[in-house]
Hints:
Order of helices and strands: EEEEEEEEEEE
Largest sheet: 7 strands, mixed
Structural class: mainly beta
Helix content: under 10%
Distance between the termini: 40 Å
Strand content: over 45%
Number of strands: 11
Radius of gyration: 14 Å
Amino acid sequence: QVQLVESGGGLVQAGGSLLLSCAASGSIFGRDDMGWYRQAPGKQRELVALITSDGAQTIADSVKARFAISRDNTKSMLYLQMHSLKPEDTAVYYCNAVRRGNSGYSAWGQGTQVTVSS
Length: 118
């Protein structure tokens, strides 16, 4: 059973930075595609950034110049470095792990709240 635990959220002023972390357990982390998603109140969950098991990255246009995704397979950790935060970045941020194939799965963390004040 894959378990994901996010941390690093909080309250920050506009223009500030935060580093989100996601600790994974119960899987061979290096084989999973990992992503960060966010959901603001009243809105659908959206992809923020994705990094595949091969290291290929996808970053949402809305955050491309400000956020960076990375992973440390030796520590089973996923990170999201966020700079120049804006009030519209306020959301619950979720970590996601996807294993493709016959024994595939999609697992989610419980989320971490990021609030950006203006």
